[in-house]
Amino acid sequence: MARHLITSALPYINGIKHLGNMVGSMLPADVYARFLRQTGRETLYICATDEHGTPAELAAKEAGLPVDVFCAQQHEAQKAIYDGFALSFDYFGRSSSPENREITQHFARQLQKNGFIEERAIRQVYSLADGRFLPDRYIVGTCPHCGYDKARGDQCENCTRVLDPTDLIDARSAISGSSDLEVRETKHLFLLQSKLQGEVEAWIDEHGKDWPVLASSIARKWLTEGLNDRAITRDLDWGVPVPEDTWPELAAEGKVFYVWFDAPVEYLGATKEWADQAPESRDWKSWWYQAEDVRYTQFMAKDNVPFHTVMFPATEIGTREPWKKVDYVKAFNWLTYYGGKFSTSQKRGIFTDAALEILPADYWRYFLIANAPESDDTSFTWEHFTTSVNKDLADTLGNFVNRVLSFSRKRFGDEVPAGSEAGEAEAALGREIAQLLGEYEEHMEALQFRKAAQALRALWSAGNAYLETKAPWLEIKTDPDGAALTLRTAMNLIHLYSVVSEPFIPASAAAMRSAFALENDTRTWVTADEAMSLSFVPAGTAFTVPPVLFAKITEDDLAAYRERFGGGEEAA
């Protein structure tokens, strides 16, 4: 059986991320990793903060802190948020780690050895006001392709086109805001992607045919336009330094590697961190080197696709070493806020720390995955969020759990009642649950998260339909044993829900499971046969009624959220 390696795009270190960032990478990766673990697959989920490059230096400067101190603080702040969202990383590392430095420098030496790195003199923007060369992200201006006036020197955030700083219109320094710029000559290392284009194309032809259209189309667009040789060093104070033993002159000048050269290597670096910091022996390299038994899935938003599907595979290929390359790229479109883009830099939309302040993580986890921007951009509105929480979580699941357990305790005490033998209604319910569970598993295996959420919702709805049909509150008046059977069956559904809902709503799933005093309850998944029998919780098992799983969002709540975060035209 294949081992499963999962990575989600590294969040930048410069501040707490918004919900669009969460649903575009880390959250779906977590849902998938949880599902794989539950269904018995050996799984390693790796992520890290991306700490190098211009965003880190600029954010540290704005905060008035040394960049290393700023990054250490922000790493802990981000990790606390991700813990709050119950993201089940096996390891959450840092791209500034010694491990990443070691592996990045190794990759560079191998590429140099194989003739895929070349030192070139180039003309680069120099800021007279700042007295330094400006790396691409230190330059902002208007995109020549779409007219966006806050484009960076490496990529336009609006249209995602890759840029050269000299392409920008009305360019200015991101440090001082000065437009007193000139072009001077300096030396940098270039990755000769043009020499690797044929091999990258062949690799994508073989491995990319099953990727989502979003991922494969972006990769092929880059290849169609032709791979240009790309500068992979920058003039920065913070980053993975160029190794002195290979490029002494550039090392003496303080050159560091471009953030998009070292950041993908951090997937390997963080895996090595995971091994190095463990008390027991772990073989990190078996996940990445000659790892024929590993299936590697990456999760990312569409703006990260080119670097992961073209540039990093070219880097790996160029080392001429058998490093593991991605098998499946799960790419996402944008989550928008009332039609306008969530933006970290412009502080527009709901940020993850604020989200956790107002509601528990499971509310957000469920809504975001159930509305994941898989095939197209998805717009977040408070109205849609409220309807989804109230209908799906509070009414369909939460109310089912509460009324079943509360009514049973009131009429039969604090133990699961026995009642009569299961009849045709229970057999039909079992068949329906098994079918829906099969659909849920199928969609999860295919990484179709919205469809998986629909199947999960249908599982919850099946319990409500059964309860309405049997109506134990009426049944108990004429057939107490029949009512007991109905409630026992419903309690078995609650336990099933606690198992299969765990990837989406882990805290609520744990609360449902803990309602039953089952010894050695180590079940991780439910088979079709088990689903049909609905016999997880035997009669006589003690139970408690947990607190309300999901409180409804009221009109007053909704008004308060709109006032705090905006909603409607002013948010677009």
SSE arrangement:
Layout: E1 3-8, H1 19-38, E2 43-49, H2 54-63, H3 67-84, E3 91-94, H4 98-113, E4 117-127, E5 132-133, E6 139-142, E7 151-152, E8 169-173, E9 181-191, H5 197-207, H6 213-225, E10 230-231, E11 233-234, H7 248-252, E12 256-257, H8 259-262, H9 265-276, E13 294-301, H10 305-318, E14 328-332, E15 335-337, E16 340-341, H11 352-358, H12 361-370, E17 378-380, H13 382-412, H14 424-445, H15 449-470, H16 472-478, H17 480-500, H18 506-514, H19 528-533, H20 555-565
Parallel strand pairs: 1-2, 1-13, 2-3, 13-14, 15-17
Antiparallel strand pairs: 4-5, 4-9, 6-7, 6-8, 9-10, 11-12, 15-16
Features:
five-stranded parallel beta sheet, four-stranded antiparallel beta sheet, 572 residues, 14% strand, alpha/beta
Main beta sheet strand tally, sense and closure: 5 strands, parallel
Strands in their spatial order, largest beta sheet:
3-2-1-13-14
Rounded to the nearest angstrom, the radius of gyration is 27 Å
What percent of the residues sit in helical stretches (DSSP H or I)? 40-55%
| Structural class based on helices, strands and sheet pairing | alpha/beta
The counted number of beta strands is: 17
Distance between the termini: 47 Å
- How would you sum up the global shape? elongated
Roughly what is the average pLDDT, rounded to an integer? 94
| Strand residue percentage | 5-15%
